[in-house]
Each structure stands twice: as structure tokens, then as C-alpha cells.
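hey can u check if this looks right to u? its 421 residues, i copy pasted from the old doc so theres a chance i mangled smth
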Amino acid sequence: MNAVAERPSNRRILIASLVGTSVEFYDFYIYATAAALVFGPLFFPSESASAQLLAAYASLGVAFIARPLGASVFGHFGDRIGRKSTLVASLLLMGGSTLLIAFLPTYAQIGWVAPLLLCILRFGQGFGLGGEWGGAALLAVENAPQGWRGRYGMVPQLGAPVGFIAANGLFLILGMTLTAEEFMDWGWRIPFLGSILLVGVGLWVRLKLTETPAFAEALEEAPPAAVPFAEMLRDHWRATLGGTCGAIVCFAVYYLATAFALGYATTTLGIDRQLFLGLQILSIFFMAGSIAASGWLSDRYNARTVLLWGSVAAIIAGLVLPMTLQSGSLTLIFIGMSFALVVMGLVYGPLGAWLPGLFPARVRYTGVSMTFNVAGILGGALTPVAAQWLAEGRGLFWVGVYLAAASSVSLVALLSMRDRG
């Protein structure tokens, strides 16, 4: 009875889930933006600007390799000792790795050790993120009142646009106030330093939380799983496979509409970096609105239905985005990005409610974290690299085919699974 009486308010719970994922995505986005803008010449020198960009995008993918490893470790402890402590640890690891990137020497200073250290810290970011999103989603959904799972589940998803706006807004301000030389010399480090403030806020909110009712009830019914990962694979492999494939589309859409589009526009099309960052910040508001709408739609119908229609829309986005990029028109490019990010909201917002519904509470942290992060590898790790290679060798049309194919995988997976709300 005391545990129930001492439970934090729903407002604090939702703020804790939102702040954590905002920090998480801020950290990831500043890396993705820096990879598109400065990491190539600073850490991967080459005579070819395209080769530098490809190497920087490849370092972006290191975190995706680390994410399922982090998911298995943090999922194990999240299902055995609780959501709260695990969420605090994941936030500390990711925030610490991001902060240390700010102090890295460049290739010109220490040679090949510089990109090695960058990749190690990128691995730390990904390892921490492996336990972050799943825990934040469970924090919201496992505290949701009856009939509100979709709307509660979409709150941590709003951390994506919040983190994006904070990250790219800061890069935009730096670009406006610093010269190109100052930005390359030291200005790019400021966003990485700033992450420590956001991590502090996240920790302050999360340390005041208690465990979720679903986790407490699972402990009362039976001891925690000895090895949650093994139990997940043995008893819930269909849900794991289906959930993984169903989430691929959101990563493919996002990284094409942001990281690839930014790199392609500024290097191949020669569009001013500040101008394009401004366009991306404006277009991300469409994604925020779409995420919010997806939560309401998930409660009105169900999360799987929203994901199904979002996957169909993503196939269409595979045709629209390359056409608008190829046009070279800023207006059309903005329309194409905005449409793709609206689609991103429809295939991302419902995941917070859909994936937890696939697993019982005793292995839910592990199941949600693994499906989400393995999908990140399949849908996002190599997407900017593959898109850049396809754009150079075969043309933007094939970038659209790539997105349509990834979206089709998710569509087939969703069609094969039962409605679970």
C-alpha cells in the first residue's frame, strides 16, 4: 500500500520518459550532424570529400553495432532488478561518452588514434542507448491508465524531435556566430560539452522515480527470469522477429530524411549549410505533430494499424524524397523532407505502445530493447552509407528504391502479426 501511495505523479513519470529520450536523441543527433558536417576532414582525411563523408557515416554505424549489446546487458538488469536503476545507468554511460567526444584530438594531432578513439566513444554512446529507449518506453506505458497506452507511449517518442531541434538549433546558432575556421577548429565541440547539462536534468528527474506497477506485479507472481535474453529467444522468438522487422522502417526513413539529405544537399548540391539546417529544423515540427497524432490514433484504433498505414506511406516517401532532392529546388526539397518526417512520426510514434505489448513484463525490457535496437542496425546503421553510394553510382532513384524495400519489410512483418493494441 505504501508503495502505491508513494508513486510519483503521472506528470513526473511522463517528464522523466521525455527528458531521458530527449537527452538520448540530442546526443545521437549532434553526432549525426557533426558526421555530416565536420568529422570527415577532422578525423578521416582524404583527397575525396565523398570518401571523407562515407567514412564519417561509417563511424555513425558503430553505435548501431553496440546497441543490441547494450540492449542485452541493460535489458537483463532491467528485467531482474528494475527499470529505474537501469535507466539511470544507461543515461550516465551515453552522456559520459558524448561529453568525452568534446575533448578528442583530431587526426592532424595524433594520427590514426583519433578516429579509433572517436569510434570507441561512439560505441559507448550506442551501448548506453541500447538500454535507454526501451526503459523510457516501459516507464511510460507500464504506468499508463486504461485506454491511454498509445498516448503515453508516444511521449518518449517526442524526445526525437525535441533532441533534434536542440541539437541542430545549437549547430545553427554556432554557424551564425562563428566563422567557418572557428567552427572547424573548436566550435563543433560545444554541443558535445552541452550534453552534460541535459544529462544532469535527466538524472534529477529519474532519481525521484519508483518502479513501474507492471514490474512490481511480475515480481509478486514469480521470481525474475534467470536469463531474460534466453527466455525471450526461447519463448518469444516470433514476437522478437516480428517486432524487429516491423521497426526497420522508422530508422530507414529518418536517416535518409536527415543525415543523408543534409550531407547530399551540402556537398553534392552545394546548398548553404545554415540554410539547410534551418529547413530541417522547420520540417522536424511536422514529425512532432505526426508523433502526437499517432498516439491518439493508436488509442482510437490500435498501434499496429497506425504502423501498417505508416509503412505504406513510407513506400510513397521513397518515391517523393529522391525526386524533390534531385530537383534542386529548396521549396520542393522542404516539401519532400516534411512529408518524409510526417511519415516518420506515423511509423515511430506507435512503437512505444506496440513493442511493449509483444512481451510479458518479466522479459519486456529485454524484448523491447532488442527488437528496437536490432531494427536500428538493419534500418539505420548503413542507410546513409548505402544511400550515398547509390546516389553516386546509380542515382537518387535507387535511394528511393532502397527506402521502399526497407518499408516493405516492415509492412510484411506487421501484416503477419496479430493485433495487440
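Confidence is low (pLDDT under 50) at residues 1-5.
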